[in-house]
Amino acid sequence: MVRFIHTADWQIGFEAREAAEIGDELREARFETIEKIVEIALRERVDFLLVAGDLFESNFVSPRTVQRVLSLLTGLHPTPVYVLPGNHDPYTSSSIYRGKAWSHAPDHIKLLLEPVETADALIVPSPLYQKNSIEDPSAKISFPPDKEKIKIAVLHGSLAIQGMYEHDDFPISPDVAERLGADYVALGHWHSTFRLNDRVYYPGTPEPTSFSERDSGNVLLVEIDGPGSLPAVKEIGVKTLTWLEKSTELHPGRERDLLEALLEEIRKIPQKHRTLLRIRLAGFADPEFLRDSGKYFEKLEKDFLHLDVKSEAKLAPDPGEIEKIAAGSLLIKEIMKELLNLKDALAGHQGKLSDESERLLERIRKNFGDHPLDLVSSAEEALMLLAELTLSHDT
Ligand SMILES: [Mn+2]
């Protein structure tokens, strides 16, 4: 039997580009999160702690930062901590793991460059030596066929699932567990907790790094009875700070009600001083409202650790504007004509109108697939404006 914590992507020394002015708080929070992980590992009496890459933000974090990590992990002694070099902290000639600060790592903290055997498990890593590669890191490793041990592969990269990876982002073939004959594949790199199948998991980053992340802030507690057994995997939340995005779509004439509903939702957020909040305004609004939109959120600023308001709302259109856009292009003129016919035909059936608009849009995309994008996007804009006008006039 083997029982361990699978984690990755600590990114200690985090550069925090999305919220640089509170960079220090964000970096500090990550130490707090490690402390929690160490506590959980002790409480759960694990055989080891496995960090599947990107423990550090880069190979150039300060010696002081490295020392702090080592000192926190010393609390786990003698439980082993296995650390895989990832793409943020690859095992290059200037690797942080070849530096002086790391050379003081106590014996129970071990860099995963070669396979490691524990009483019941065989851990086979594929350390990274560069920041990008088109090669599958799992292609470089294998398990000896005769070993009667629990087989754990440790990899850092992107599962090669259509639409979810870049070709040079260490693509890992999704059949990795079957191909390697592994009981468990401990992945790192994706920041969301992700289960591909019974044997292949990403723990995600234990401390969120971005507003766009979903399901981050966890570690995995993994238990495997013996060779061939299915792993039992439990997600444990450990995050210190919360990154939250709230958005609303504005409609002309209803801006204030919609804003009030959004503010009501925001007031209910717990632990505001430990929350980074991004507010996104979309849709259409009258000019006066847009001009003042900043001040509606001013009062919130002191409650939250960080507040970021992104206003993508557009000025509510007037019919003159639509004519101006239409005048610029024959194609759009044609579309407008069709849409206006539709509008008359479907008066009072807005749902249908927007379905029909979608259908027209699809046709434009097909017909003009390879043509200048701005043509399609202005047609798109004209459609949106018209749909919006129809909605606001009909309701
Ligand atoms: Mn990575």
UniProtKB/TrEMBL annotation:
The keyword Hydrolase applies. Keywords: Exonuclease, Hydrolase, Nuclease. It comes from candidate division WOR-3 bacterium. This is DNA repair exonuclease. It comes from the Bacteria. One of its GO terms (molecular function) is exonuclease activity. Transmembrane segments: none annotated. The lineage of its organism: Bacteria, Bacteria division WOR-3. Gene3D superfamilies: 3.60.21.10. Residues 3-192 form the Calcineurin-like phosphoesterase domain.
